[in-house]
Automatic annotation (TrEMBL):
Protein name (Swiss-Prot/TrEMBL): phenylalanine--tRNA ligase
Gene3D superfamilies recorded: 1.10.10.2320, 1.10.10.2330, 3.30.1370.240, Bira Bifunctional Protein, Domain 2
EC number: 6.1.1.20
GO terms of molecular function: ATP binding; metal ion binding; phenylalanine-tRNA ligase activity; tRNA binding
Family from the record: Belongs to the class-II aminoacyl-tRNA synthetase family. Phe-tRNA synthetase alpha subunit type 2 subfamily.
Subcellular location: Cytoplasm
Native organism taxonomy: Eukaryota, Metazoa, Ecdysozoa, Arthropoda, Hexapoda
Any GO BP: phenylalanyl-tRNA aminoacylation
GO CC annotation terms, alphabetical: cytosol; phenylalanine-tRNA ligase complex
CDD domains reported for this sequence: PheRS_alpha_core
Record bears the keyword ATP-binding: yes
Domain Aminoacyl-transfer RNA synthetases class-II family profile: 228-480
Amino acid sequence: MHPDLTERILQYVESVDKVDTLDLAKQFEVDHQKVVGALKSIQAHGDLLQAETATHKALALTDEGAAVLEHGSHEALVYGLVPAEEGITQAELMAAGGANAKVGFSKAMAHGWILVDKSCTPPLVKRKVNKIVDNVKEQLAQVASGKAQLPAKDVADYKKRKLLQEITTKSFVLSKGAEFATTLTKLETDLTMDMLSSGLWEQLKFKSYNFDALGAPPTRGHLHPLLKVRTEFRQIFLEMGFSEMPTNNYVESSFWNFDALFQPQQHPARDAHDTFFINHPAQSFKFPQEYLQRVKTVHSKGGYGSMGYGYDWKLAEAQKNLLRTHTTAVSARMLFKLANQEGGFKPAKYFSIDKVFRNETLDATHLAEFHQVEGVIADVGLTLGDLIGTLYEFFRKLGITQLEFKPAYNPYTEPSMEIFCYHPGLAKWIEVGNSGLFRPEMLQPMGLPPNVNVIAWGLSLERPTMIKYGINNIRDLVGPKVDLKMVEDGPICRLDHV
Ligand SMILES: N[C@@H](Cc1ccccc1)C(=O)O
């Protein structure tokens, strides 16, 4: 606001009886809203001004009216489209005239500007007069220039044709109030002991309380979107009777991350280009020895109906420590436990949602660490049909009903399927996960009964979170560039439970 505006208003009112804020705005060449704002702050100082509301009605052009002012009325345009001599069929005229041709045609007929010559076949629209005056355009021009005195019936007609509209403006008529002054005294905000003891408080003016003011927002912690989405996934798994696996070990041995999963030691994923290996401590030494021997055998010689890979399996390779590349390492540990627990195998449903690490090239959707959501079911005689049915059930709880599956390859599952879902918001099919039946070469060495099958699937937590929160770049979700406001203001996540 102009710093002097309040005093300029007061000084103006001193010399006149009454003045309308709209006239003041014109006079001072400032926006009317600013004058009203200044009036409000004057009123906060007491009864300096009396302000009575006034309403002003004025005519203004609609968008269509503005178009008529620029190009001419619909009837004049139609007249212009009728060739002077030979005429035109009505259909052609309508096609040439576009959206407003119909109104224009009937008005031009009513004015007697054009006629339909029915003696020709087909009948032709022809000009009836040589010259027209576009009254509508001229009258609208008068309205636009602000000095219109249109006959009431024309105003009514133009309003009906949606060329004109009435605009109501509210203003205030100002006159001097009981406490009128030309300057504003600063309002006190605090009552001090000095004011009380000296009696000064009696002469001072105090700012009134603003009971509508909002309090300062209390500081508190905020959950990151990934954590909110994780809560939802966890809820879904719990509803489906799954129990959570302990995933609190980011560092894993190659044995559990790869060998136990029948991933050959020459597999490119086991390269430092794809996996972060650990230097301190570089190796693990404690493994269930008999199981380790069976893993070695199945890789090098085969067994359980498999030929194996036929290579020289090395303990040193299995001992190498790394940052786990998938939570399936934890699933392997859990399945081994399940096979060897007291009382023997019992059917189980497990899930996990936690961090994994890959030596990735970073881009808009990939970071070197991300979260995996994983589900595992072990039971007698499970089939691919059970996997597909479970996936439908799982994704239905996420609000996703359309799924498609594409054959894929994982060293530890056969068959393997990539999971695609139709995303109605993005209007396309997107890849959401990977799944399969764990191979006998993985399960049998663990000691699971031969008739037990294990179905499993995995997906990233980041992908659904980015879709849900409308984030396009992973760096806007994770890392030093994250806008904390996004975290603070982000709504809680609800995955449209069905
Ligand atoms: N571990 C797989 C996901 C997966 C889990 C379970 C079964 C099949 C696939 C991955 O890293 O993508």
